[in-house]
Design brief:
By secondary structure, the chain is an alpha/beta fold. Helices cover about 30% and strands about 20% of the residues.
Amino acid sequence: MTHILQTKTPLHFLDPNKDALVAEFVGKPLNALRTPAFVVDRAVFAENCRKMHENARDCGATFRGHLKTHKTVEGTKLQLVSDVGRTSAVVVSTLMEAWGVVQGGLVADGTVKDILYGLPVGLNKLDDLSALHAEMTRYGGTVRILLDHLDQVKFLEEYERAQEHPKKWSAFIKMNGGLKRAGILPEPVSFKAFMRRVFASSAISVFGFYTHAGNSYGSTSLEQATSYLTGEVRLTNDAAGMAMEVLAESDNREVDNQPFVLSVGSTPTALSATAEAKLKMTSTLNGTLELHTGNYTMLDLQQVHTTLIGRPQISQKVLATVISYYPGRGSDGQDEAMCDAGAIAMSKDTGRIPGFGEVVGKSWKLGRISQEHGILIQVPPDPELGRTDPTLKIGDTVEIVGQHACLIAAAYPWYYIIDSDEGSDKVVDIWVPWKGW
């Protein structure tokens, strides 16, 4: 294959000082913060983590926490350990997250023992992944990768042949469940041919099969989300079944991992993972079930639309300041206002609930956005949703819940932490997320 230049995670160029931030902001009321500001309620975040451990337990699965939403040491600890259960397995979307786990002491203290890099393996990142693998191995941990193309296998083999001490990579095979984001289709002829080649590889040890029903975000009921969940289980289970048929004929049948791990999940399907859902799953599994998810820690309007959560379960919000007001400018003569949170602060992601965000406690929504400002639009009061206050004036601080927490959080260099169990009007901690790739 063509020589591919290796790249390195630029860890030393990104380092906000948590101690200095804590000294500056802890104890301050929210209305004293520069806006826009990203605020996380630690008590709600922790409760969401505890409930997910319950779901995994009740549906008979182990759990792998996805770190992509919060990207922090503190959030990882809450994701992995609760009074209901604990896990040491995570999935990351960037190598910056993986190295953040290591440098944050979470590997050395045993909190994290298993890191899955959650994209099909990037060939220009193998030096970096190998260094991560060596660091994990020092502490008895492991790094896993995703595969969905034979060129990835070929390059891994070439790469390992050039090493003084070649290793086998523990890999999930990524399955395409119809979303067409990544993965292999479960077409028997082509899939079995793929698995024959993988099982014959000197550089790969198949750990299991992985899928993500991102299309489950369109669910509007528990029944629909459960249907997506059972579809994820069926897909990975069928893949494992076909792989077992291939493995039975392989010279490597004694050295590859069995039982396979069947890793399934998205926030809607994981929220639907209950004892009742377990009864609807395939009765005979060709492996052990693992549940993975990440957005559930913070949640957002996209998840509200699924009906699987309520607004009180959302742990994040953006503080913004009203900077101008326009009486009668809106449709039907409604008022509009401008705030200092725009597309960078809120993302441009949309959802089935109209607008880019809801103003907490007020009959206003974030209706239009530009880069650094947003237009607030009046909406009818709705006491059931807590929208009872129509008043708004220049200088007010408003709280906005947006459409997609993962992209909103990504904009902020640090998060202001409150705790509703301790009174939620003052900052109690600062979390500094891992930035970059």
